[in-house]
Amino acid sequence: MRAQFSAALALLCLLQAKAEMPVQADFQLDQFTGTWFSIGLASNTRWFKENKQVMKMCTTVVTPTEEGHLSITSTLCWLQGKGSALLEGDSGGTRDQSGTKHNLRVLETNYDEYALLGNIITKGADTFTMVTLYGRQKQLRPELLEKFTQTALSHGLAQEDILILPQTGEDVNFCVTF
User: Fold this and answer.
1) 32-164, what's its fold?
2) Is it the case that residue 178 has pLDDT exceeding 80?
């Protein structure tokens, strides 16, 4: 009985740690805008698991909205399409899209080199985690790749849920989108 209680308590602590995603202190909205490259993606969503073998690096453009939020649009070369999200508030926010709630946060950034974003995704009774690594250049220092991996692991993702996106053979700025 004591072992079951300890296991349940450990699981509860893990779930609590996984759910907490701090935001970047003193976030500077205007410095975060512009073009980023999606360098790494980690997720336990079914979509990620089904598509990760074909995923490649893509461009992401962050623009301010009239409401003072950030619009994040990514060109997805591997799917020949576009995806977008809205980042509300100072460095985090919630968006309800097609019955799926996204709680997106800028976890850490130095604005001119890299950014780590976290996303808690809720669809019905299911909750998923996504951590993304953006870079201003197509390649980042190895220690930033390691920081991304450790951040994903610290939010409850497994090693097999983590992917450093390979560069495409084409210029990712000119992928076909529709």
Assistant:
1) Lipocalin (2.40.128)
2) no
- Quote the pTM value: 0.77
CA distances from 139 to 34, 66, 143 (A): 17, 32, 12
Q: Which residue type is seen at 63?
A: T
- Structural domain boundaries in the chain: 32-164
Chain mean pLDDT for the chain: 78
Instruction: Give residue for tokens 């003072």.
Output: 68
- For residue 168, give both structure tokens: 């495409």
Burial degree of 127 (CB within 10 A; 0-12, 13-18, 19+): middle
Name every residue whose Cβ is closer than 8 Å to that of residue 5 and which is 6 or more positions away in sequence. Answer: none
Angstrom distance (rounded) from CA 95 to CA 83: 14
- Residues taking part in catalysis: 58
Q: Distances in Å between the alpha carbon of 160 and those of 19, 42, 44?
A: 20, 9, 9
Residue 38, SS3?
Answer: strand
CB 117 within 8 A of CB 104: yes
